[in-house]
Amino acid sequence: MKKKILVTGANGLLGQKLLEQLINHPNFDLIATAKGENRSLVKSGYCFESLDIANASQVEEIALKHRPDYIINAAAMTNVDACESEKELCLLLNVNAVKFLVDAANKVDAHFIQLSTDFIFDGVGAGMYKEDAVPHPLSFYADSKLMGEQVVQTFAKKWSIARTIIVYGVVADMSRSNVILWVKKSLEEGKKINVVDDQYRTPTLADDLAKGCILIAEKNAEGLFNLAGKDFMNIYELAKRVAHFWGLDAQLITPSKSDTLKQAAKRPPITGLDISKAVEILGYNPVSFEEGLKEVEKQLKRY
């Protein structure tokens, strides 16, 4: 008998990837939820419910109606700078809503899977954080995501937390761009761009992140897992690799330092996530960065 997975934030990049992979899945029936209308191209093979995760009674109502075995929370406020100026909204979506979802999960005995971020770390040191590294957030966004983790760990009966980092990819309805698409578009238009060379990350293909979340459910794996890409690089190197892949002019890319950007929120300099636990326990196997770009190229043609 198939188990039920309820996904929040189904209109986002990760949400749409989860939807693609869970439709016609041999082990799961999908309940996709998002605020507003369903933006996926595929409307059949699953149930869609409009859901505002910041509305506790709505969250409980949908959970009791469908009684999912797993809830994957792919909804969040992720604009790091906006979180600095809209703190109440950030807390509502990244902390309070997580409590509403956890309470609903507990009522129906669902395994709760929360998405989190490398930004909970301060990035001081050599990077490549393991799951047991000590968090030290530098921004309000990072604070809120760490508080969300703490809510899950404190209140959820069955839980997993998947931390990720610079998620990229293409879906049919993109509500916002990502760094790979921004670099590609800028260079195609002949624009000069400044890209930081003092922030190091392990960029993650959205398709891989979705696979990792589904593996957590398939294996009933509880606890913390890093789900990221396998290649560690700074953002300037990332931009040059994007230019090289699409045969664009890398001379248009100028390296710069984070403190010249005047961003509202402070970013950790060197993060990167060590994925060895997810590889060993889940069988997580992300593509290389260049393989990820090949996938993006295919997706750009498809959509």
* CATH T-level topology: Rossmann fold
Cα separation of the termini: 34 Å
* Number of separate structural domains: 1
Mean pLDDT, all residues: 97
Low-confidence stretches: none
Shape: globular
Q: Find the CATH superfamily.
A: NAD(P)-binding Rossmann-like Domain
Count of alpha/pi helices: 10
Per DSSP, what share of the residues sits in E-state strands of 2 or more residues? 15-25%
The class by helix and strand makeup works out as: alpha/beta
Q: Major β-sheet, in short? A: 7 strands, parallel
Radius of gyration: 19 Å
Please trace the helix and strand order, writing H or E for each element.
Answer: EHEEHEHHEHEEHEEEHEEHEHH
CATH architecture: 3-Layer(aba) Sandwich
Kindly report the spatial arrangement of strands forming the biggest sheet.
3-2-1-4-5-6-11
Helicity range of the residues?
Answer: 25-40%
Number of strands: 13
General description of the model:
There is one protein chain. Helices cover 39% and strands 18% of the residues. It has helices spanning 13-22, 56-66, 80-85, 87-107, 140-155, 179-188, 206-218, 235-245, 276-282, 289-302, and strands at 3-8, 28-34, 47-50, 70-73, 111-117, 159-164, 167-168, 193-196, 200-201, 204-205, 223-226, 233-234, 253-256. It has a single domain (3-170, 203-230, 271-287), classed as 3-Layer(aba) Sandwich (Rossmann fold). The strands form 4 sheets. Strands 3-2-1-4-5-6-11 form a 7-stranded parallel sheet, sandwiched between helices. Strands 7-10 form a two-stranded parallel sheet. It is α/β, with parallel strands linked by helices.
